[in-house]
Specification:
heterotrimer, A alpha/beta (about 280), B alpha/beta (about 350), C alpha+beta (about 350), B: about 350 residues, alpha/beta, five-stranded mixed β-sheet, three-stranded antiparallel β-sheet, 8 strands, about 35% helix, C: about 350 residues, alpha+beta, 2 domains, eight-stranded mixed β-sheet, four-stranded antiparallel β-sheet, 12 helices, 12 strands
Chain lengths: ~280, ~350, ~350
């Protein structure tokens, strides 16, 4: 990382993987820093973010979906939304991007040692979750039970599907996937993620929930968790906001006194309840 | 002097609110000192006491109609008209909004007032210094129209202020004290209508050489801070998405990525001479045939750029090239949206 | 606060022109310049450009230390990019006749940009290379209320020197080492200060506070009340009057928000930082179309909350308002910050 926080480092795209199709498609980019020293000194925590630059178009703050346990390459799952993310979707192997970071507070994975971890996600929300559960699976002995509950609109919207299947088969975590509407060759749960949570009725004892995804999903999931007697301080989520500098200076990502790029994006539900409602 | 009795005005507003004929009345309330006022939104008869009508009533309230379109003042299912106080110069703004099909005539309930002229705060500041007017009088005095001029009414007497040294420059060239369209008029109709004349400053500027004009305007552009106040206060600038402004974007939850990605950016966010010039000139051009010379852009500009010269110029051009008067009649078609066979256009055909 | 000066000298009126010339020899000079009906803080090239008589400049120190347009890096060949950092040159800069409120405002900007973890090198280079000569306000201006927010027409916060106009010239008081160094470089221009000038200075300083035309409610009480007023109807009351032009924030001395955009032509270009405003609808608009602050009411609330609630919460109680009055004076719809603060006090009492 440079001393000038606004100066990105150059990185090369070493792999691209189309995760989903449609208008708001998701694509995972794997990048490696060009400068070896930068590559070896770049350390991050699960749940942190980085600013990806497409020079000439702008920057976009994307969560790092790889876990630091996965090696030196960084992975970003980008949903195609606007100007910068559209270009990120056209990039191919060998092309260059700028990367600066890591930013944000990340998940407090150290504090969760010994606990049951329940990851509940949907849509592109699985990007930050993947960083956390990959880390936990890599350090499996540090954690008790791990479950991943993932919901998507349709089966073709499931991000990291093969990876999730492999995790289920390895036995490292229990994986429950769901889709919103029935499909001919789907034999898993059909319904919203929150309904799946209700059905599975996870226990709050010694448990931490980490949930990320569309706002509606998070709201409904949290309601179900409250009904299951989970404590607000034990439910973690990530908040989003428009970000430009990523380093807590441009002033736009605040929710009340808290800056999402600096004090977040990871918050507990208890912390969020203390924030004003301009979310 | 005005023939509008402020008490009669308040009674009329009270009546409209009591009969529930309107959803909100847009008027003026006393502002941060004697010389200033701000828009007041009245919804209940017992708030009407705050309504004033005095030389401090400078802000043009027509802008608030545009604000209501984008940021509703009331609940969306309340279909009653908006009440509004209009002076002689304001009615043209309402006519333009009707011509542009942003509002229908029946959506506004116009209470006309007789306005002999309102104050310019920049001029007032100078006068305050020159005449050594006390802080107490600045804060607690109240402006009244007196004969052909203005006075500050204070407990210890009246302080007369010279007309030319205090009124808005547009008021010194007033085209008529009362509006031509209204639902009720408080006071007497001003039947003399003085046709708009471009101020001599515009003619002087036109007479300069291109190099001199470039130097003049480049200096103006270098001082602009791109606050967009001129656009935001303008009575004709009602576009949902402004072509020359990267701070408004009409995107919705269902806008597709390609639309957002390929959106043209006509001007950047930097406030350099060329970007500022592009913004100011384009905005003036878009106002041809729509600008009514309310001169609010000029008043709003924090750097006091002579923006009224740009807008007066396009108004003059609309008249001279197309014999077109902005704000004259709702029957007129908007100037820039149609071509006629006898339009001057040597360079096109 | 008003710090005791390290030294006091007298600059006779007859030497004022020479003083200005000598400043120009010592570095880049920014001073008040008359531009039609307003005064603005601009870089000057000759002493004659400087306005001796002025109230307040429309712009403030932010224009010099966090300029409105700042290229932060340039790039060539967007396909195989090479980047060049564009840090500001570390030239010596001198600001002449900054009003004490504007200098005091720098503390809020320093809070934001000068943080230990990720300091902003662009801001810091300019900040450290700038020497600020203040001008005390013997007669505050129609919208001033510095006294209500912990300020003073003769406050010395963040000033290196403070000058005061007296009969026949100026008192020149050095406040910091930078100020003393400047004084040393101009020493031949000054005379010793006479006892009667010292007394006159004390008289002017004492009287100036009594001449403040406006007062605002106690900012700590406003801060406390704001914690309960997020959903108050008072925000819509003022939001309805607002036209969203952003003047209140673009010319506020404690504001700093910015945007970063790329500009590119045929494969090369630059990344530029430009002033932005929380009052613009696009400021918080997500690319998804969601806007957490979609109404004018929510944006007016953000501005007041930031200055009187969020900034003090994050920075040891420092209220990010210095009472300069620009937001009220320059608002085209006369949205009066003091009236908003009064409404906050009234609403707070009712809760």
């Amino acid at each position: 990382m440079n001393r000038n926080p606004y100066l990105p480092d150059l990185a090369t795209v070493v792999d691209v993987r189309q995760e989903t199709g449609g208008d708001r498609s998701v694509r995972t980019l794997t990048v490696e820093f060009d400068d070896k020293e930068v590559a070896s000194s770049f350390t991050y925590k699960p749940g942190q973010l980085a600013m990806l630059s497409v020079f000439g178009k702008g920057e976009s703050m994307i969560s790092i979906t790889s876990s630091p346990t996965m090696g030196k390459a960084l992975q970003f799952s980008v949903m195609r939304m606007g100007r910068v993310t559209s270009i990120l979707h056209y990039l191919t192997k060998g092309e260059k991007v700028g990367v600066r970071g890591p930013y944000g507070n990340g998940f407090p994975v150290g504090e969760w040692k010994g606990k049951n971890l329940i990851f509940i996600g949907g849509g592109i929300g699985s990007a930050p979750l993947r960083s956390a559960y990959s880390y936990a699976l890599h350090n499996r002995k540090d954690y008790a039970d791990i479950s991943i509950i993932y919901g998507a609109r349709t089966s073709s919207d499931i991000v990291f599907r093969d990876e999730l299947r492999a995790i289920a088969e390895s036995g490292g975590a229990k994986v429950e996937m769901s889709i919103d509407k029935p499909e001919s060759d789907w034999d898993g749960f059909v319904g919203f993620a929150a309904m799946n949570v209700k059905r599975l009725a996870p226990k709050p004892d010694n448990a931490i929930v980490i949930t990320c995804g569309p706002v509606m999903l998070i709201k409904t999931v949290i309601k179900e968790l409250m009904d299951l007697h989970f404590k607000p301080s034990e439910i973690y989520t990530t908040l989003e906001n428009k970000m430009k500098c990523g380093v807590g200076k441009c002033g736009r990502c605040n929710i009340g006194p808290v800056l999402v790029c600096k004090n977040g994006p990871v918050f507990t539900v208890e912390q969020i309840r203390q924030l004003p409602s301009d979310l | 002097m005005t023939t509008t009795d402020p008490n009669e005005l308040r009674n009329a507003i009270r009546g409209l609110l009591e009969s529930k004929k309107i959803r909100t009345f847009i008027g003026w309330e006393q502002g941060s000192n004697a010389f200033r006022s701000r828009p007041l939104f009245l919804r209940s008869p017992d708030e009407v006491g705050n309504e004033i009508f005095s030389p401090a009533c400078t802000p043009c309230l027509v802008r608030m109609i545009i604000e209501d379109l984008r940021y509703p003042l009331d609940k969306p299912d309340d279909k009653r008209p908006l009440g509004i106080a209009l002076r002689g110069c304001d009615d043209k703004g309402v006519i333009e909004l009707i011509k542009d099909r942003r509002i229908k005539r029946e959506e506004v309930m116009i209470v006309g007032v007789d306005c002999p002229g309102t104050v310019d705060w920049t001029k007032a500041k100078k006068l305050i210094k020159d005449r050594k007017i006390s802080t107490d009088d600045i804060v607690n005095g109240r402006l009244i129209w007196k004969d052909r001029g203005i006075a500050i009414a204070t407990p210890s007497g009246e302080i007369s202020l010279e007309r030319e040294k205090i009124l808005m420059s547009k008021c010194l060239d007033c085209e008529g004290h009362t509006p031509r369209i209204y639902d009720v008029l408080i006071g007497k109709e001003d039947t003399k209508r003085i046709p708009a004349e471009p101020p001599k400053e515009v003619r002087e500027l036109e007479a300069r050489s291109p190099d001199e004009k470039y130097e003049f305007w480049d200096d103006v552009f270098s001082r602009c801070i791109r606050c967009y106040a001129c656009r935001n206060i303008c009575t004709y600038c009602h576009c949902e998405e402004c072509a020359v402004d990267p701070t408004t974007l009409a995107i919705a939850a269902d806008s597709i990525a390609a639309d957002k990605a390929n959106r043209p950016e006509w001007v950047g966010r930097d406030s350099t001479d060329s970007s500022n010039g592009f913004y100011l000139i384009t905005r003036a051009y878009h106002g041809t045939g729509r600008c009514i010379s309310c001169e609010e852009c000029d008043r709003a500009c924090p750097m006091r750029l002579p923006l009224r010269l740009l807008n007066r110029k396009v108004r003059k051009d609309a008249k001279e090239l197309f014999d077109y008067d902005a704000g004259k009649s709702v029957e007129d078609k908007p100037l820039l949206s149609e071509t006629c066979d006898n339009d001057p256009g040597g360079f096109i055909w | 606060m008003v710090m005791k000066a390290l030294s006091q000298k007298f600059l006779p009126k007859a030497r004022l022109q020479e003083f200005k010339k000598r400043l120009l020899d010592l570095g880049e000079v920014f001073a008040p310049v008359q531009e039609g009906d307003v005064t603005a803080l601009r870089r000057i090239g000759s002493p004659n450009e400087i306005a001796d008589d002025f109230d307040q400049t429309q712009n403030n120190l932010r224009a010099i230390i966090e300029p409105q347009n700042e290229i932060i890096l340039t790039f060539k060949d967007t396909l195989k990019p090479s980047l060049t950092e564009q840090l500001p040159a570390e030239n010596k800069r001198i600001v002449l006749w900054c009003r004490p409120c504007d200098a005091r405002a720098l503390s809020s900007l320093d809070d934001n940009f000068d943080d230990a973890l990720l300091p902003d090198p662009y801001y810091l280079r300019r900040r450290k290379s700038t020497t600020i000569i203040g001008l005390g306000c013997e007669k505050p201006f129609p919208f001033c209320f510095c006294g209500s927010v912990g300020g003073n027409p003769f406050s010395t916060d963040n000033l290196d020197v403070i000058m005061t106009r007296v009969r026949d010239g100026y008192v020149f008081e050095s406040l910091t080492k930078k100020g003393k160094d400047l004084e040393a470089q101009l020493t031949s221009l000054f005379s010793e200060i006479a006892a009667e000038q010292k007394n006159l200075l004390l008289e002017i300083q004492g009287k100036s506070r009594t001449l403040l035309p406006r007062s605002a409610p106690n900012p700590e009480m406003v801060h406390a009340n704001l914690g309960r007023l997020f959903d108050s109807p008072l925000w819509k009351k003022w939001g309805d009057k607002c036209i969203g032009c952003g003047i209140c924030t673009l010319l506020c001395p404690t504001c700093w928000c910015f945007d970063i955009t790329d500009v590119e032509t045929r494969g090369k270009g630059f990344r530029i930082r430009t002033w932005d405003s929380c009052q613009f609808p696009l400021f918080t608009l997500h690319t998804s179309g969601h806007n957490p602050r979609p109404t004018k009411a929510s944006r007016v609330r953000q501005r007041v909350m930031h200055k009187y609630r969020y900034h003090p919460v994050n920075y040891s109680g420092r209220i990010a308002c210095v009472g300069c009055g620009r937001c009220t004076e320059l608002c085209p719809e006369d949205i009066d910050l003091i009236e908003i603060l009064n409404d906050i006090m009234k609403a707070g009492e009712q809760q």
